[in-house]
Structures are given as C-alpha cells and as structure tokens.
Design a protein that fits this description.
Blueprint lengths: L10 E11 L5 E4 L3 E2 L1 E2 L1 H11 L10 E5 L15 E7 L1 E6 L2 E9 L7 E9 L7 E12 L3 E11 L1
Antiparallel strand pairs: 1-2, 1-3, 1-11, 4-10, 5-6, 5-9, 7-8, 8-11, 9-10
Amino acid sequence: MRKSNFSKSRVKGFFAVQIKDKKTGKIIGDSGWTANTLTNNGLNAIAAIAIGGSGSYAVGYAAIGKGTDAIVASMTDLKSKQNKYLAVTPSTVATGTARCTVSFDGSDNSATLTIGEIGLFKTDSAGSMVAGNVFTTSQMTTDQTLNATYELRFS
C-alpha cells in the first residue's frame, strides 16, 4: 500500500494588549504577544471557511473581562466579561495571518476595571466566542485606553 503525503496545516492564535494613558500616550501596561486558545466555535469557523462557507462564523467582535481561569476549547464566553462587545477591524497582514484590532476606551467605564481576559466573538452576545485567553491582570482606569491586537496564524 502506498503511503499518502498529506499537507499538515495548523492554526495558532496570539494576542497582545496594551493599556495607554490617553493624555500622555504613555504605555502603562503591555501583555506582549501571548498564545491564545482556539475554541470549538473557532474550529467550526475555520472549517466553514475552508469549504467555502458563508462566513456565519466570521469574527466580528471582541470583549474583555476580569477572569483569570484558563480558557478551554468548550467555552463559548469569557468567565467574567466587563464592558461591551466592540466591533473589530479585520485585516490580513502577511500570508496566512489574519489580524483583528480593537480599542476599549476607559471613559466607557464608570470606574476602574480589573481586566485579565480577552476574547474574539462572531456576534455581539454571549455564546459565540471563537478564541480567547487570560493574561496578567491589570487595572484600567477611565483615562486610559486598552488597545488589543489579535492574530490567527495559519501554516
């Protein structure tokens, strides 16, 4: 029997968040690039796109939360979502790399938020998380902005 030679495809997700003082522009906190967890919804999204799906799983929103427990593939929402779902700006930055960016404005908060998790969502409601993970918790005050960059890298 002849051995088949299949191409091995992989997808890895990463995010980076920075808290920036709006007045001075100084970066107050920076997570650096952090690996993410691709959820079952995310795998469905990739499968749908791979076979020419209609995009029903396309990422459209991001959210932040104060959770610190690890994100697992079966999750469909953040543990402790804070703030509202915000629309992301999608782009392709390199061959096989999809990027989403979003900025959370601290002035949308009534007080300082403790943040420690981020997720990508297909809709602006719970139950549609495509990817997410936790990072070292930080305090985000009303005079700061949290800028997030999310990448899914296909190889």
